[in-house]
Amino acid sequence: MKKKIVKVMAVLGGILVMAGLYFTIVKAGIPYQDPTPKMIAQYERHMWTGMVLLLAGLGTGIFCFVYTVICFLRKKTKSGAINFFKKC
Q: Alpha-carbon distance 32 to 40, whole Å?
């Protein structure tokens, strides 16, 4: 059951990273030279949204990676030297 949740979280992290890249690259893009205040606000809103999504996706991906490595190490050590998680 936990493996399925970790896989779903990994996919969700990938989707969040893609959405964050979309907002920062496509929606926000390169700022204009002489923007109006409305254009500045829109650019900052899109950049902020993209960065939040990107960091959330990267955090989720890093968590899934670390969890997978810990579970792998637990299976490798039969003595149970790594007792961070009861069952993976």
A: 9
